[in-house]
Design goal:
161 residues; two-stranded antiparallel ribbon; 2 helices; 9 strands; 36% helix
């Protein structure tokens, strides 16, 4: 009996504990990476939807006064007519838009028409002064995820004349 080989109960319990800690650590890492991946996927979706909304407004602003986005009416004439007169202020569109629709709200969009600053308004083009504010709007769309509360903003100069 002096030459027996094998593991004692203490060695088996110790190796089981080390294995359990390793498995729990890997499980925690996989769970966190899944959460981060899902969060990034929602941010990507918000960016794509906000860009699509801005593109729709850019394409229709010079042509139409009213459009329908996400089955909700958008009065583009309000963005053109109610420009802010004071530098640094903005005009918020009075109705929030919701995606995918007003009944199933996942994202909220707020459209603002920002005042073009005086130092950015006038340029010389072929020896003639060109006023940017006569032809372009400075729009900002804010997208808010109603699930997480995170926001994404997109600004653009949009031709309207």
């Amino acid at each position: 009996m002096m030459n027996q080989r094998g593991l004692t109960l203490t060695e088996v319990l110790g190796s089981t504990m080390i294995l359990a800690i390793a498995v729990l650590s890997v499980t925690l890492l996989l769970q966190q990476s899944t959460l981060f991946s899902k969060d990034n996927q929602e941010i990507d979706q918000a960016v794509i939807i906000t860009r699509t909304l801005m593109e729709e407004i850019q394409h229709q602003l010079a042509v139409q006064d009213n459009i329908t986005v996400f089955n909700q009416p958008v009065a583009l004439s309000l963005l053109k007519e109610n420009l802010p007169s004071v530098s640094g202020t903005s005009y918020k569109y009075p109705v929030d838009l919701y995606y995918p629709n007003s009944a199933d709200r996942q994202f909220r969009f707020t459209i603002e028409s920002l005042k073009i600053e005086p130092e950015n308004d006038t340029y010389l083009v072929k020896d003639k002064e060109f006023n940017v504010s006569k032809y372009f709007l400075h729009l900002k769309i804010t997208c808010t995820s109603l699930k997480t509360g995170k926001t994404f903003e997109l600004e653009s100069y949009v031709e309207y004349n």
